[in-house]
Amino acid sequence: MTYRETLHTTTQRTPISTDEILEKIFKFRQLTRLDQQLLMSGLLSREAIGEAEWYKINQVFDLIHQGLIRVVD
After folding, report:
1. Alpha carbon distance 39, 51 (integer Å)
2. Count H helices, E strands: the chain?
3. How far apart are CA 39 and CA 19, in angstroms?
4. Is the CB of residue 25 less than 8 Å from the CB of residue 31?
5. Which end of the chain is more exposed for a tag (fewer CB within 10 A), N or C?
6. Is residue 67 a contact partner of residue 29, using CB atoms and an 8 Å limit?
7. What is the DSSP letter of 70?
């Protein structure tokens, strides 16, 4: 399954979970603008973020800085 097919399948379900977005980012090693928007809206809509989610989000940023996850449009 290609990234585009996975993105289409994932966004058809409502609502999409933060974990699903993060797993997709890790799987394809890229962060799209849509991923960023979905992630931010999901995180900002809640009062608190769990420790496991913080860890995964920080891991995404670390991998971006290391060049192991690409940021694409």
Report:
1. 16
2. 4, 2
3. 9
4. yes
5. C
6. no
7. E
